[in-house]
Amino acid sequence: MRKKILLTLSCLWLVITLPVNAAWYEVTGSAVVLQSEDQARQSALEDAVLQVIRYAGADLSSFNRVKPYLKNSREHYQFSGSELRQITVTKTNKKSGNLYLTAQVEVFPSARTCHKVQYKKGLLLGEFDIRSPQHASLGGIYQLGDNFTSVLKRQLETRSQSFVVSGTTRVQINPGYPSQMVMLAEDNDAQYIISGQITDLTSTLDQNLLRSDTINRQFAAELQLLDGKTGEILMQNQYREVANWPFSRTSQVDTGSARFWQSAYGQAVQRVSQNMMLDLESNLACRTNLPEVVRNHGNTVHINQGRKHGVKQGDQLALWHSAGFIDQNGIPRNRMVQTDITLVVDRVYEKSAELSVEQAELANSIQPGDLLTKQIDD
């Protein structure tokens, strides 16, 4: 018996056939041919593999380990040390400017992957701005920073496995003031802070004698990730895409419109947001989530994470006393001391939860600011 599911996406059609008790998926993906068929083939194959990983419940962070190999135009890919085992491209064809690719994907999702045993981590997202506003004069796309922030937020909220967006802020993110960054994270119940800038929107004109001139435009951005508990920088990455700019040189382009985001350039911008999300998954998925005690009364403890983070009734958590301090240079030094106290989740709300202390005689030692870790069954 086979279970057949049809998923319709904006630029991808998937038909997934899943044999009972097996892990083989047959995927048909499509991509617009932007600059070359090789690029379109790679894009269609990447999107198809990502959809299989999400559907199968495999570890999204594993995608970055196999992505470099998908650049090679081959019919068969085989991997070891990954939940993704094999990819076989069975058919490709081009029609109406689209490249269609059919592949069989073998994947073995593990029940012990990080996103399945950890709660989702809160991210505070800073607004992206355009470093050189004069770069945005072509098309008048001065609002692209705000639009890109919204696209990245949606990418994290709908496609990531390990994060929830605690909020967005227009406050300037400055790693040079770690204590302020810690306070900003605390105010938003965020474990990490993301900031970034759009660094390049320049364009080049390819003049052609026999056909219309072609404008190719850059989209480059940088991303910075800060630890909300210490204010230190954990990751700094640069991203760049180049794509055809299909609009007139004299037109004013609405970067909030479907026309923009469905264009070759809009799709390139979306790929950057997806790559940012995948890098965050690769770097942070297995880092311990740290719910915090925000209130305690008697044997009842309230924490700052709830249903949207994956907290469930009956979960058991271990308590760690926060013993952090600020050194002589004013730098916060995070430190935790494990205790013998175990708590059980009694009630779950959207962004918070109530827990009871199993060792009632030790309840008085719990203080707001103490941290917890989810206990994992052996």
Automatic annotation (TrEMBL):
<dbReference type="InterPro" id="IPR032388">
    <property type="entry name" value="FlgT_C"/>
</dbReference>
<feature type="domain" description="Flagellar assembly protein T middle">
    <location>
        <begin position="113"/>
        <end position="255"/>
    </location>
</feature>
<protein>
    <submittedName>
        <fullName>Flagellar assembly protein FlgT</fullName>
    </submittedName>
</protein>
<dbReference type="Pfam" id="PF16538">
    <property type="entry name" value="FlgT_C"/>
</dbReference>
<feature type="signal peptide">
    <location>
        <begin position="1"/>
        <end position="22"/>
    </location>
</feature>
<feature type="domain" description="Flagellar assembly protein T N-terminal">
    <location>
        <begin position="23"/>
        <end position="109"/>
    </location>
</feature>
<keyword id="KW-0969">Cilium</keyword>
<feature type="domain" description="Flagellar assembly protein T C-terminal">
    <location>
        <begin position="298"/>
        <end position="374"/>
    </location>
</feature>
<keyword id="KW-0732">Signal</keyword>
<dbReference type="InterPro" id="IPR032386">
    <property type="entry name" value="FlgT_M"/>
</dbReference>
<keyword id="KW-0282">Flagellum</keyword>
<dbReference type="InterPro" id="IPR038165">
    <property type="entry name" value="FlgT_C_sf"/>
</dbReference>
<dbReference type="InterPro" id="IPR038180">
    <property type="entry name" value="FlgT_N_sf"/>
</dbReference>
<dbReference type="Pfam" id="PF16539">
    <property type="entry name" value="FlgT_M"/>
</dbReference>
<keyword id="KW-0966">Cell projection</keyword>
<dbReference type="Pfam" id="PF16548">
    <property type="entry name" value="FlgT_N"/>
</dbReference>
<dbReference type="InterPro" id="IPR032370">
    <property type="entry name" value="FlgT_N"/>
</dbReference>
